[in-house]
Amino acid sequence: MAGRDAGAAGGVVDIDLDALAWNYRRLAREAPGAACGAAVKADAYGLGIAQLAPVLAREGADPFHVATLDEGAELRAVLRDAGYPDRAIYVLNGPGPDAAADFLAHELTPVLNSLADVTWWREAARTRETRLPAVIHLDTGMSRLGLPDDEQQRLAREPERLAGLDLRAWMSHLACADMPEHSENSVHLARFRTAVGRLPAAPRSLANSAGIFLGQAYHFDAVRPGIALYGGNP
Question: Fewer Cβ in 10 A, N or C end of the chain?
Fold first, then answer.
C-alpha cells in the first residue's frame, strides 16, 4: 500500500516475494528444455510490477510479456533501475502504425498480430535502414490475437514480407489448457506445428501457465507463465 493510507483501503494484499520466486523456479523446472519468461501485464496482474519484476528477473525470467506500449515503457524503467537492462520485453498488443519511435526508445519488441502489423513494422525497419526485432503471433483457435490461418498461409507463400525483421519467435496461445483432457489442446498443438512448419525457422512458444503442465510436447523453445506465478492454480 505504498503511497496510500491502508486504513482507507477496501482491502489489503500481502505479497510474498519469496513465494513468487519459488513459483517461478517451480514452473521453470517443469519445462527444463525451454526458456522461461514471465507475463507481467496489467501491473503484474494487479500486484505491482515495480516490486515483482525485479524478483522475476533475478530468478532468470526472460523475456517479459506485457500488453501495451505504456506497460512496456514502465517495465523497462523498472528493470533498468533494478540492474537488469538487457531483458527482452515483448508487447502482446503489437504496434500501431506510428509507434515505432516509442518502441525503439524503450527497447521493446512488438508482437505482430496481423499482416498489417507486419507491414507497419517492416516499413519502420526500411525507413531506419536496419533490421527490427519482432515476434509474430499465430492464431491457432483462440481467436483473440494473432494472424488467422489465411494470413499465415499468405505469409508462408510470401516470406519476403518478413524482410527487415529480426524474428525472435513465433507464438500462439492455448484456449483450454486449464482443462488438460480438452480436445482443443491437441488441436491447437497440431495447428501450431503445421503453421511453424511452413514458415521460416525461429524459436517457438505456445505454453501459458496451464500449458506448461500439458507436457513436453507443448513446451517448444520457450514457455511464458502468467497467473501461476502469482498463486493462481493453472
Answer: N
Nearest residue to 230 via CA among 70, 95, 38, 59: 38
pLDDT digits (tens, 9 = 90+) for 85-99: 999 999 999 998 889
Side by side, which strands form the sheet with 89-91?
A: 35-36, 222-223, 204-205, 165-171, 132-137, 109-112, 89-91, 64-66, 38-39
Angle made by CA atoms 201, 204, 205, in degrees to the nearest 5: 165
Contacts of 234 (CB under 8 A, 6+ apart): 177, 178, 208, 209, 210, 212, 213, 225, 227, 228
Q: Which DSSP letter does residue 104 get?
A: H
Q: Which is more confidently placed, 98 or 197?
A: 197
First vs last C-alpha separation in the chain: 27
Please provide residue 91's backbone torsions phi and psi, each rounded to the nearest 5 degrees: -100, 110
**Average of per-residue pLDDT across 118-133:** 95
pTM above 0.90, yes or no: yes
Q: List, in order, residues 6 or more apart from 205 with CB less than 8 Å away.
A: 37, 169, 170, 171, 172, 220, 221, 222, 223, 224
pLDDT at 218: 98
Q: For the chain, what is the mean pLDDT?
A: 95
DSSP output for 141-179: S--SSSB-HHHHHHHHH-GGGGTTEEEEEEE---SSTTS
CA distance 223 to 35: 6
Q: Are strands 222-223 and 35-36 parallel, antiparallel or unpaired?
A: parallel
Stretch 144-163: mean pLDDT, rounded?
95
pLDDT higher than 50, residue 1: no
